[in-house]
Every structure is written in structure tokens, then in C-alpha cells.
Design brief:
The chain contains eight helices and seven strands. A seven-stranded parallel β-sheet has the order 3-2-1-4-5-6-7, sandwiched between helices. Helix content is 44%, strand content 16%. By secondary structure, the chain is α/β, with parallel strands linked by helices. The protein is globular and about 45 Å long. The structure holds NADP nicotinamide-adenine-dinucleotide phosphate (NAP). The site of NADP nicotinamide-adenine-dinucleotide phosphate has 30 residues, from α1, β2 and α4.
Length: 245
């Protein structure tokens, strides 16, 4: 029998990068994965490429509570009750503080922080009834340290830390765990924009001396949502080559 044994696992932003690696690792561990992204086509393609059976892809903007409720309803009707939620969808709209537009601040908070809240609220009713569930929020080391030019993004990620701990405290007695991973610098589309000198500068801050890959986050993610982590809740695990310690 596989470790996750047919548990339905929702991965927001599962069509690319870190989310895609998490979806693949969960599928490998036996989960039935629901891949969520704004592009339904990309989400469905990513779901079709996962190992095993029973996966699905869904078009949904995590920032929109109505779309989220409808999507969770569709997942539960089509794949079964949700046992695992990975809030991974995220965006950046970097700018220095004085130039940052209201829309840049609001869009990032809406997708990264409100999106995680929307999905958490939508799945927890069922999890509470079943007295079982594991929620994982993908935050960032900049949510712990702050970062010049990312006031919006760092605030959204710090907010996810507060969300993680509050959900963990509120729902522990109902059999639901909630943890977070704070990735450091991981090679994906999101970090593609950095030039060589920016990458060099970053490498100087990473004790292990290398950038991370999406699979490094996926390893930790599967552990934290699996029964092996049954005594861990409310924690933020930095997976960052030692950047923040
Ligand atoms: P990515 O390659 O840009 O992928 C982002 C994913 O999120 C895509 O699947 C995208 O699909 C989805 N998405 C974005 N906005 C969405 C929305 N409003 N509703 C639904 N889906 C949405 O990003 P990544 O680098 O893998 O990052 C994944 C997570 O890790 C993010 O939360 C990010 O902040 C965090 N993180 C990344 C790094 C890093 O170094 N890469 C470091 C720390 C933290 P659609 O475009 O189809 O919507």
C-alpha cells in the first residue's frame, strides 16, 4: 500500500515550478492530486502527466472566494473528500516602496495570502467532519527576513506564517495539522528574471553554496503532509540551503 493511499491532495499553482514538483511527489506517494491554476489548460496538462490514476486539473483564481468554493465542490464531487491542501500559488510584483502602486500591493496580497485563506476555509469544513487533514502553506524566507523591493510579497508571505500558526492552533483538536515551508532561492519561472550578477550575489548568502530545485521543496512537502509528520503542527521549515538560520 502506498504512503498516501488515494488521499485527495489539492495543490494550488500545481501546473509549474515548485507546485508541479510537489504534485508529482504527492502522486508518486499515492495521492490523487487536484492541480489548480488560473490556466485550466496548463492545470489539466500537468494533471495528465502525473504518475498514477485519478488526478484532475481545474481552472481557478485562488484570489476569488466564489471560484475557490466552486472548485472545491467540483474536486470533492469528482475525486472525493480533500485530505491534503498545499497552498502554493503565488505571484510577485516587485517595486521599490515609493513607486509601488496600490494594484501591485493588492494583487500580491490577494493571490498569496487571501488565496491561501480562501482555500483553507473551503476545505476545512469537510476535514473537521472527518477529523483528519493536513494543510501546507508555501511561504518564503523573505516572509521571515523582509526584502528590499518586495514589501508586498514579503508582507503576504509573513501573513502566511501567521495564518499557518492560527489554523494550526484552531484546528489541532479537530485532527487537522497546518505547517509551512519557507523556500529560499529555487530555480523556477519566478526566479528566471534574475541576471548572472544577482545570482552570484545570492549564492554568497547560501551556506550550502547552491540554488535549490523544486524537488528539494517537494521532498519536505510530502513529509509534512504525510502521517510520518503526525506530531508536527504550526511549524515553518526553511528549505533554503541555510540562508536563514
Ligand atoms: P511559478 O513557477 O511562477 O508558478 C506559479 C504557479 O502558481 C503557477 O502554476 C500559476 O499558474 C499559479 N498561480 C499564480 N497565481 C495564481 C492565482 N491567482 N490562482 C491560481 N493559481 C495561480 O512559481 P514558483 O517559483 O514555483 O513558486 C511557487 C510558490 O513558492 C509561490 O508561492 C512562491 O511565492 C513560493 N516561493 C518561490 C521561491 C522561488 O525561489 N522560486 C522562493 C520562495 C517562495 P497560472 O499562471 O496558470 O495561474
Amino acid at each position: 500500500m502506498s504512503e498516501l493511499d488515494g488521499t485527495v491532495a489539492v495543490v494550488t499553482g500545481g501546473s509549474r515550478g515548485i507546485g508541479r514538483a510537489i504534485a508529482q511527489a504527492l502522486a508518486q506517494a499515492g495521492a490523487k492530486v487536484a492541480v489548480v491554476g488560473r490556466s485550466g489548460e496548463s492545470a489539466q496538462r500537468a494533471a495528465a502527466e502525473l504518475p498514477g490514476e485519478g488526478h484532475g486539473g481545474y481552472a481557478c483564481d485562488v484570489a476569488d472566494p466564489e471560484q475557490v468554493n466552486t472548485t472545491v465542490g467540483a474536486i470533492e464531487a469528482g475525486q472525493g473528500p480533500v485530505g491534503i491542501l498545499v497552498n502554493n500559488a503565488g505571484i510577485t510584483r516587485d517595486n521599490i516602496l515609493l513607486r509601488m502602486k496600490d494594484e501591485e500591493f493588492d494583487e500580491v496580497i490577494a493571490a498569496n495570502l487571501k488565496g491561501a485563506f480562501n482555500f483553507t476555509r473551503a476545505v476545512t469544513r469537510g476535514m473537521m467532519k472527518r477529523r483528519a487533514g493536513a494543510i501546507l502553506n508555501i511561504t518564503s524566507v523573505v516572509g521571515l527576513t523582509g526584502n528590499a523591493g518586495q514589501a508586498n510579497y514579503a508582507a503576504s508571505k509573513a501573513g502566511m506564517v501567521g495564518l499557518t500558526k492560527s489554523v494550526a492552533k484552531e484546528l489541532a483538536s479537530r485532527g487537522i495539522r497546518c505547517n509551512a515551508i519557507a523556500p529560499g532561492f529555487i530555480e523556477t519561472d519566478m526566479t528566471d528574471a534574475l541576471n548572472e550578477s544577482q545570482v552570484e550575489a545570492l549564492l554568497g548568502q547560501i551556506p550550502l553554496g547552491a540554488l535549490g530545485g523544486p524537488e528539494d521543496i517537494a521532498e519536505a512537502a510530502v513529509f509534512l503532509v504525510s502521517p510520518r509528520a503526525r506530531y508536527i503542527t504550526g511549524q515553518v521549515l526553511a528549505v533554503d540551503g541555510g540562508m536563514v538560520m
